[in-house]
Amino acid sequence: MLHTQMEDLRQTAGEETSSPDSPRSHVLFQQRVAAVSCPALSAARLTLPGVMDAEGRVDESRLRMHIFKNGGVCPSERGLVWRFLFGMYPCSSTALERSLLQEQMAVRYRLMKRKWQQFLPSAVQMHLNGTDAELVAAVRYFEQRQTQVQQQIQDQSEGVSDRLAFLELQAQILFERVTFDQEELQEATRIIDKDVPRTNRELSYYQGEGSGNLLVLRDILITYAAFHPEVSYAQGMNDLCSRFLEVLDSEVDTFWSFSCYMEKFSKDFRADGLHRKIELEAALLKELDPQLYSHLVTDSMESFTFCHRWLLLGFQREFEHSDALRLFEILSCDHLELISQQVDRARYQERLARKCRPEDNSNSELPAINTDFTFELFICAAILLENRESLLLCRDDVQLIQFTSSLQGTLDLNSTLKKAEHHLYNYCKSCAWDYMYGCCRADKGKEEDFLYQLRSLLVLK
Prior knowledge:
Elements: H1 6-16, H2 23-29, H3 60-69, H4 75-85, H5 95-119, H6 133-154, H7 158-175, H8 182-195, H9 213-227, H10 237-248, H11 251-265, H12 271-288, H13 290-296, H14 308-313, H15 321-332, H16 335-355, H17 375-386, H18 388-393, H19 397-405, H20 413-440, H21 444-457
Organism: Perca flavescens (American yellow perch)
Keywords: GTPase activation
Pfam family, one: RabGAP-TBC
């Protein structure tokens, strides 16, 4: 069961962030600027049982189920897992194929970055006012890293250089027709330059020489904005992308993983997408607690807008940092989506069974599970319901925001997951109950069998 596995992972994470005198904390203190690429990881193996075959292919369904049931993965495997989880590495790829793919992605990213830098040379360097000593030092560390990268390129063997030159020619053909809107790119860069320094610099990843990672983050965000003008840049993307950079510790890998993530979730950074998510949260709470729902949608409160940051950034500030990373994994494994597939199979089997029972003339169908109710909405609902009494005392939007802001860093992930899982179970049960209750009223044994199967379906052992 998901929440019963969390303590082991918390202890493992604790080993990764131990006391200042520990070897690990010394490594953190000696943090360096992220690598450009991590080609060695393409051949690395996952130790999760039954997830990777001999040639390096990953069973995506098992990977996602493992993440959900075990409350995330160990920090030592997180970097490799995220490369599969977020789509940078196709789960169907072999280790050999990933080695070639890694080179291709590195070359393409380098060309994309160079293209916008040539188009907008004034944006190559972040403009500093000189009052932020940490940022001044960050620029210096970043430039030192750039010099080392150039030296590594010059030291490449002739065979490697020829292969990369061919990949660059392919990339040039791919991107030759890409054009930029100067005004839009300048505006995106301006906002990025304001937001990047606001990224949480208290994280060990941005301490010491690691402060140069702020400049790496900046280049990733500008490159993304330049080549995705339909999305460009919106406030909050820096915090989201920072998660990927911290875990993957690679500029190229972060760009492609972040880009894959944004293919699915970029709509959340648009007003219509976020409003849709807030509406879904309201609809879910209406089913779980009609009284609390009615209170939160009164005229004096703006319906659920106080959940904006929670849903946009995946509860990044509400939980302790290592817990927030694990929660991001859990939310990204789309477990409710997997459950809905199992429910569809169960519904199909039930239809087959009815065809074999001529006396059953019922035409009713099992109610469909709303897969728009993602697990993050159940997490949000669990937080709201846990603080129900305090929320009922709030009389306006200002009080709501003040209260929800007071929750930052105070929530317990184990407890929240347990409650969210319970609400998920109850929701799925209610979707199936009306039909099954009608079929099972005359047969108590069948009713008990249904409850047992539903419990097994939701992996609530």
